[in-house]
Amino acid sequence: MSELESLRSEFEGTQVIITGASGFIGLHLAQALSALDAKVLIIDRAQPSDQLPHAEFEWADLRHLDKTYETDYLIHLAAITNAGYAERFPLDTYEVNVLGTVNLLNHVNVKRRVLFPSTALMYKESSEPLAEDAEAGLESTYAQSKFIGEQVVKFACERMKVDYTIVRFFNIYGPGQLPMYIVPQVFRQILEDRRIVLRNGSVLRDLLYVDDCLDAVAKLVVSPAAENSTFNIGSGETVSIHDIAQGAIDASDEHEVEITDLQQGIQYSPTSIMADTTKVRSTIDWSPQVKLEEGLRRVWETHLNAKSR
């Protein structure tokens, strides 16, 4: 039995609203919960690329909803998630990530739980593992918008008398991720450019494969022990951007590809960030299962399959 299959009795027949399911994590989560026979309603500005059993799609801009929804679980993934884009377009970022969240919570009656994904980028950079109560470093527009979103969720859930769970994602990767993120970016360069150019290969990140992320999210949203609490979702280990690039080369078996490190300073981006996963591990039966080498191999195979079509 798979990790998620063990949750079938928790989700079968329940109503789950997922916003942002045209995105990377949202689509994977919608697929997983739909396969568990949850009745999934996807609210988004773009239709997911895959057809899902037991799932309905409704086009909507969360800033301008005109109806009220009923659901058991609300998983609110719709957001601007690229930190670089957020710096260039701060007004759009706050409208989507903050006002969109306010308006959504004013238009959904939730019976069991709201799950809100936040970000590890709200932490101050550190070479040590970061627990959920670590010092905040709200230097970027994206981090600020998600921090405010957390407060909005807590405030709204208290008024609605419904529980919430907040998850702070570190670097989640896997098949289907947009090429602006580091793992698909290096694979695209291997395939198209035959070389990898890094802005700063010494930056350290905590990478977690998407299947492990889904496992944690699905368990947390139904766990009574996770009510009204915040959890880091990461691997608890760091790897340099250079080593990610080298791992991608190893996974692709394209060993003639060279890596160029520009060694640039990257504004509003911590040089080192790693999750302390003690809390999530002790709250639910969870630990990462997919090693980085295996995860990179799976992503590479997806890129090859996409190229061959």
Description:
38% of the residues lie in helices and 21% in strands. The radius of gyration is 19 Å and the shape is globular. The relative contact order is 0.14. The strands form 4 sheets. Strands 3-2-1-4-5-6-11 form a 7-stranded parallel sheet, with helices on both faces. Strands 7-10 form a two-stranded parallel ribbon. It starts with 7 loop residues before the first helix and ends with a helix. The protein has 10 helices and 13 strands. The model has no long low-confidence stretch (mean pLDDT 94). By secondary structure, it is α/β, with parallel strands linked by helices. Strand 1, helix 2 and strand 2 form a beta-alpha-beta unit. Helix 4 packs parallel to helix 5 and helix 8 crosses helix 10. It has a domain of 212 residues: NAD(P)-binding Rossmann-like Domain (Rossmann fold, 3-Layer(aba) Sandwich), CATH 3.40.50.720.
Principal-axis shape: globular
Task: Classify the beta-strand content into a percent band.
Answer: 15-25%
Distance from first to last alpha carbon: 32 Å
User: What CATH architecture of one domain would you give?
Assistant: 3-Layer(aba) Sandwich
Using the CA coordinates, give the radius of gyration.
19 Å
- Average the pLDDT over all residues and give the rounded result: 94
Number of strands: 13
Could you give the order of the helices and strands?
A: HEHEEEHHEHEEHEEEHEEHEHH
Question: What's the helical proportion of residues?
Answer: 25-40%
CATH superfamily of one domain: NAD(P)-binding Rossmann-like Domain
Within the largest sheet, what's the order of strands? Answer: 3-2-1-4-5-6-11
CATH class of one domain: Alpha Beta
Would you tell me which CATH topology of one domain applies? Rossmann fold
